[in-house]
Each structure stands twice: as structure tokens, then as C-alpha cells.
Amino acid sequence: MFLASEYDKETSMQEKCGNAKRKHTSKLHSESSESSSNCKLDTANSFKNTKSGNCNRCNIMGCTQQCSRCRSIFYCSKPCQKEDWTVHKKSCKKEYTEEEKRIIEERLKRKKQQAIDLQKMEEKRFVTLFDSFSGGNQRFLKTLSPEKALLTASRPHGSLQKAIEFAKTWFPDFKVLTRFVNVPREPMNPFELIMMESLNMQKCLLVAFMYRYHEHVMRHGAYLKDDIDSESKVEFYLDHVGDNPAPFFSYSMVKPGNFICILKPLVHGFMDGTIGFKIEDPSNVYIIEKDILVQDNLL
């Protein structure tokens, strides 16, 4: 009896100790799990990428791929970005860095200053041009009449060959040119001038067809065509002789339908960016009128 009672007490004590151990272990495990959970959250927060966001199309979190233009929208993949572009492009605005903003500002300042300098240069050139010609304001402000502006002429068949024959008769020692591409340009330095003289390039004569009036009435200009219908122009700068080409020709002869012969021609670059032929010596120009060519054909 005594032994059974002692045994029951000992068994009860062991069960109590076991329960206490289990409770203690469970508590420790719970605390450990909670601590571990807190640690993960903290770690996730501490290593969170500040340059991330929800996908602008499918709303997936933690996307790091940005719109390279505005840098304010995130995407999870290229396909999402591609499909969302039709909507996003309406609000997408280029986001410039501070360095890019500085560069753009400098460029704008430079362009503004260039525009101011160009305007000053144009005003100065206008005054110089106005002072360099004779004839008064009426000539300076003169424009083409609608009839002259629309007047054009076509080169009659065989007329160019007749004009070349006339030119060779008048200037047998000169090489006749009929294409603008073969005409030398004005020498830019003394070395080029020496080269031209050594190659005898100044012993040339250009024959071209005048097919319509040029808008630059003050310079009595005309548009020219060569034998392959390439286009150029001629303008007359004869203010130093009173803007009078006589006795070599008259400005009334500079009109569509006639041929022009230019001795020692050089391609000139004008101030407006165009190229053509600038005549400063009236003795270098001869006009072949279309009536002469017609009479020659009749004979």
C-alpha cells in the first residue's frame, strides 16, 4: 500500500515537471518565432529598394524597371511597358537631370545670342548694301511684276548649238563651257588663283540659256539653264559704272529666251547662301538674242 502511494506521488511529480518543461519550451519557441518574424520584417524594410513601385499596368509590387523618359512610372517587364505605352505616352514628359538642364539652358542662351548677333549683322549689311548702289529708293524697292514673274521661255531645238557657234566665232581662243558643273569656283586664296592661271582655266567662256527673270530686280538677275537643264543664276553688280552696262549690252537684253555668254566665268557664293554668277565687269558679258538665231536659221 505504501509502495503504491509513493509510486503515484512520484509519477504525478514527473508529469508536472514534464508539463512545465513543455510550457517553457513552447514559450521559448513562440518567442523565437516572433523574434524571427520581427527580424525578417525589419530586414525587408531595411533593404527595401527606394527606387521601386507598382507596375503601372498589372499593379505588381516591387517593380524596378522605370520609364526611361519620365522616370516616374514602373513596370514589371518590357511587354507590360509596351502595352501600356499607348496610355502612358499622353502624360509622359521627359525628366531632365540637373546637368542636362544646365546644358539646355546654355544652348538656349547661345542660340538667343546668335539670333541677336545675326540680326545686327543683317541690319549692318542692309545699310552697306543700300549705300553701295546707285539709282535711289525706287530701284532698291522695285519688285517683279506678276507678268514678268510668271514669264518663262523654253530653249528651241538646235538653238544652243547655234549660240555656241556664235561664241566660237567671237572668241576663237576661248574654251566654250555649256555645263555649270565644269565652271571653276572663285579662288579662296592666292594659291588657288595661281593654280587656275597655270591650268589656263580663265580662258573659258560659258554659254547658258536665260529662261526666266530673277526676283532680285535691283541686280537685274536672270535664272539660267545649261545644256542638261541644270539651274543657276546671274546677277549684275555694276554700281561702280553707274549701273549701266553700255556699250556692251543693255539690261533689256537680259530676258527669257536669250543666251548669255560670260567670259572667264567663276561660280560665286552669294550672301544669302545661293550660288551663281556675279558680274562686275560688263565687258565680260555678251548677249545672243533669240531673233539673231531665228534669222540665222532662215538664212
TrEMBL record:
UniProt biased composition (Basic and acidic residues): 1-13
Domain MYND-type: 55-92
GO molecular-function term, one example from the UniProt record: zinc ion binding
InterPro entries: Znf_MYND
Alphabetized UniProt keyword annotations: Coiled coil, Metal-binding, Zinc, Zinc-finger
Coiled-coil segments on the chain, per record: 94-124
Alphabetical list of Gene3D superfamilies matching this protein: 6.10.140.2220
Stretches for region Disordered: 1-40
UniProt-recorded name of the protein: MYND-type domain-containing protein
